[in-house]
From TrEMBL:
Top-rank taxon, per record: Archaea
Classification via Pfam families: ThiS
Protein name stated in the entry: MoaD/ThiS family protein
Source organism phylogeny: Archaea, Promethearchaeati, Candidatus Heimdallarchaeota, Candidatus Heimdallarchaeia (ex Rinke et al. 2021) (nom. nud.), Candidatus Heimdallarchaeales
Length: 95
């Protein structure tokens, strides 16, 4: 299965301004968290930016095919489409 990751902010900067990264998954039944872990295996420079221990930092918004996924769902939400887009965006706040 082919996953296209769209990266923003410091994640994009860490990969020399790559906006997209493609990751091939071996399994047809993969959770979003497992897909993100595969991204980090392919690009270890993202590990500390994305993870604190085994959890994804809470200041990232994760979207699959433009649908927001809550952090509690990352290890239980299975990717179903053959070609899926996962976006990882920092939360934006202001005043």
């Amino acid at each position: 299965m082919r996953i296209v990751f769209r990266l923003f902010g410091q994640l994009r900067s860490a990969l020399e301004n790559k906006a997209e990264v493609v990751v091939e998954l071996d399994s047809e039944k993969t959770t979003i968290l497992e897909a993100i872990e595969k991204l980090v295996i392919k690009h270890p420079e993202l590990d500390d930016l994305l993870f604190s221990g085994k959890k994804i930092h809470s200041f990232y918004n994760i979207m699959i095919n433009n649908r927001t996924i809550h952090h509690e769902e990352l290890s239980t939400y299975f990717i179903e489409n053959k070609q899926t887009e996962i976006s990882i965006l920092p939360f934006v706040a202001g005043g």
